[in-house]
Amino acid sequence: MPKYGGAVIPMPQNFDSSKEQFLFPCTDNIEKLVLHKSFAPFDDLICSFLNEVSLRVMKDSEAKQYSDVITFGFFCRKASVEQMKKSYGTQLAGRLGRGLTFHIAPSNVPINFAYTLVAGLLSGNRCIVRGSSKDFPQVRLLCRIFNEVAEEEFASLKDIFSVIMYEHDAAITGNLSALADIRVIWGGDNTIAEIRKAPLKPRGFDMAFADRYSFAVFNADFVLLQNEEAMKKIAQDFYNDTYLYDQNACSSPRLIVWFGTEEKCTKAKEKFWKAVHETISAKYELAPILAVDKLSAQYKCAVELDGAKIEPSADNLITRIRLAALPKNIADYTCAGGCYLEYDTEELSDIAPIVTQKFQTLSYLGMDAEKIRKFVIENGLSGIDRIVPVGKTADFDLVWDGYDLITVMSREVKAL
């Protein structure tokens, strides 16, 4: 029965120290994490470690099979991390990590565990990260690289973070939660509610990244002006936003609002979807269960939404449902696997009544991002935390869901 920080924390019998559960390092290092001191945000050792990981990822033959792993490697390269640090200016002075962070990654995005880990480390904390409950090869690949790098000049990092994997187990989650100063939960609303049953330290708190809804705004005039090569690039970017994760990521658009006259919107849609279909037909395979879900979604919209129209499609790779109006409960009409609601308008104000706290990312094509941002603020919208160009919805940032991860996960030591 291990003793952590002076308190005896009994881990369940089914939680052993096998390599199947401790992915980094390959042994139980929880006691060392509890006893280790906090450090300043953007610590030099952490930044150097991340850069070495980046270099290894870019050279690794297995990593090249996974675009999300390569994207992570690019994210944590030296120049990128230095730019992140620079963006905080003098805000980092006098700050320390809050302590031990316990991160619970979502089951549907393999690489999320690595991004939440980086945010925890860069903010000055020790981290316990529970990877996805699904055994994704990307998770094991990155942990292999972490272990390889830590065998050399970064061996001390084995006392700073841990990546573990276990099936849903309230006892394990409860014991690890009892150690945490911050618990970072990525998952659906039901998952968050279940995890919150486990108490934290008296000063501990949760950062919860719950179910969110995302949509896109496209300028019809812009699409009509693009040549064939530009449309191929746009289609690939849209694929990365949607089909790469089966449209399951919270940042994947479910609704597309087209701006322009009815005639221009019709022509722009035809051009856009033709390019998207050419891109996805060569690389995307629709799972049978998603085909059934998409059919159910079409029936639901047809029955419940006045004026909804199922647009014709060459196959089941793209499902489009045209709306005559935007329902306030639009988030209830979601489906994965390439299912999109579409709405035409000439007024940005049409979207204001439907935006709730559930809305996360607004991606745009041929629109003015600053104009959209100003619209959100001036209208006091309770949702839309991110405004990004098409192709960037899944790009991780240290400001996520409205949280500045570095400042929230660190504390200011103030002197008067």
How does the major sheet shape up?
Answer: 7 strands, mixed
Biggest β-sheet: strands ordered side by side in the sheet = 12-13-14-11-10-15-16
The tally of beta strands, per DSSP, is 19
Range of helix content:
25-40%
Oligomer description:
single chain
Average predicted local confidence, pLDDT: 92
How far from one another are the termini? 44 Å
Low-confidence stretches: 1-10
- Supply the number of helical segments: 14
Task: Please explain how this structure is put together.
The chain has 416 residues and is α/β, with parallel strands linked by helices. The protein has helices at residues 30-35, 44-59, 67-75, 78-88, 112-122, 137-150, 170-177, 189-195, 220-225, 228-241, 262-280, 288-304, 369-378, 405-408; strands at residues 3-4, 7-8, 22-24, 95-97, 100-104, 126-130, 161-164, 182-186, 205-209, 213-219, 253-259, 309-310, 319-322, 339-345, 359-365, 386-389, 399-400, 403-404, 410-412. The strands form five sheets. A seven-stranded mixed sheet has the order 12-13-14-11-10-15-16. The radius of gyration is 23 Å and the shape is globular. It starts with a strand and ends with a strand.
Structure, briefly:
The protein is an alpha/beta fold and 416 residues long. The protein has helices at residues 30-35, 44-59, 67-75, 78-88, 112-122, 137-150, 170-177, 189-195, 220-225, 228-241, 262-280, 288-304, 369-378, 405-408, and strands at 3-4, 7-8, 22-24, 95-97, 100-104, 126-130, 161-164, 182-186, 205-209, 213-219, 253-259, 309-310, 319-322, 339-345, 359-365, 386-389, 399-400, 403-404, 410-412.
